[in-house]
Write a structure and sequence with these properties.
heterodimer, A: about 190 residues, mainly alpha, globular, B: mainly alpha, 6 helices
């Protein structure tokens, strides 16, 4: 059983299970959307005193903080007890393309060449980690949601604004991947 | 105690995201280069199930665990905020190879620099809150 679960999961298993998570949250009276936890964090840290956007009762959002704490624990459990015997299997062409950008494929989930602490103290690592994080935090709140809130929850409810947001996600992602990444990875 | 069930769903989510490899920087690169079906399959099948179940919940007025109607809020109508905000997020998604959920799950997987990435994302959200009244929505 454990061996079977420890294999990488196929898309047709993973996708419906993500939908199941969304449905469980609906059944629990809430909705699936992770990026709002960053707004809640600002509010918990007292940002509401100076910025009205963060002046709300964050206690009503504690369920989502519990959810993301769970997401950390789930990552730990999968890493510790359900580790796949094989390295992640991505396309040969992708491996070639990112190698050309100067990011060797190391078979982990996130490349050490960008996300190790050693790399953090390089310009490239810092731009990737700090810049990437900032764009994610700013962009998701501006768009009112991220992949979970718009691409899964919003589109499941056939919301046109969510479709516009998801198109935006891909416009930004394609610009970064094909136009900007070659420069950033050369830093 | 009410929070425990959310913690448990979060744990399930973290395991799914890790085992599906959807938290992988490599998988996100593969997706934005259109070199594999994996990520599109995940999102497509999640949506197929999601659309069907949300329609069922609405049609049969299903109730939540607390006995209340499960309600869906329509998103505000606008174009600029969704398109521009979405594009800014997309830039970060492709650079960091993670969206908000995976940031947490990667920390659990031992990629501790994602703690810094999370702090930076909170700063990004704070900056949006400060500039909000000056931005077109």
């Amino acid at each position: 059983m454990i061996e079977w679960i420890s294999q990488p999961w196929a898309w047709y298993v993973s996708g419906p299970m993500i939908a199941f998570v969304m449905i469980l949250l609906l059944w629990f009276g809430q909705s699936f959307g992770v990026s709002s936890t960053m707004r809640t964090t600002c509010s918990m840290l007292g940002a509401g005193k100076n910025v009205p956007f963060f002046d709300f009762d964050w206690k009503g959002q504690l369920w989502n903080i519990a959810f993301v704490l769970g997401a950390i624990i789930g990552g730990f459990i999968a890493h510790t007890y359900l580790q796949s015997p094989e390295i992640i299997g991505i396309s040969e062409q992708t491996i070639k393309d990112i190698q050309q950008l100067g990011v060797p494929f190391d078979g982990k989930l996130a490349p050490d060449a960008l996300f190790s602490w050693e790399q953090f103290f390089t310009l490239r690592g810092m731009v990737t980690i700090i810049g990437g994080g900032f764009l994610i935090g700013f962009g998701t709140r501006y768009a009112g949601g991220c992949t979970s809130g718009h691409a899964i929850s919003g589109l499941s409810n056939l919301q046109l604004p969510s479709l516009i947001a998801v198109i935006g996600f891909f416009v930004g992602g394609l610009i970064m991947t094909h136009l900007l990444l070659p420069f950033i990875m050369a830093l | 105690m009410k929070l425990v069930k959310f913690l448990l769903v979060g744990i399930l989510f973290g395991i799914i995201m890790t085992k599906s490899e959807a938290i992988s920087w490599y998988r996100i690169q593969e997706m934005f280069r259109f070199q594999a079906f994996h990520m599109y399959g995940i999102m497509g099948s999640a949506l197929a199930v999601g659309v069907f179940c949300v329609a069922l919940i609405k049609k049969f007025h299903l109730k939540s665990i607390e006995g209340l109607d499960i309600s869906f809020k329509d998103k505000d109508k606008s174009f600029v905020r969704y398109f521009v905000g979405g594009s800014i997020f997309g830039l970060g998604w492709a650079l960091a190879g993670a969206c908000p959920g995976p940031i947490f799950t990667l920390i659990g997987n031992g990629y501790t620099t994602f703690i810094v990435l999370f702090v930076s994302a909170v700063l990004g959200t704070y900056t949006y809150g400060v500039l909000r009244s000056k931005l077109p929505h």
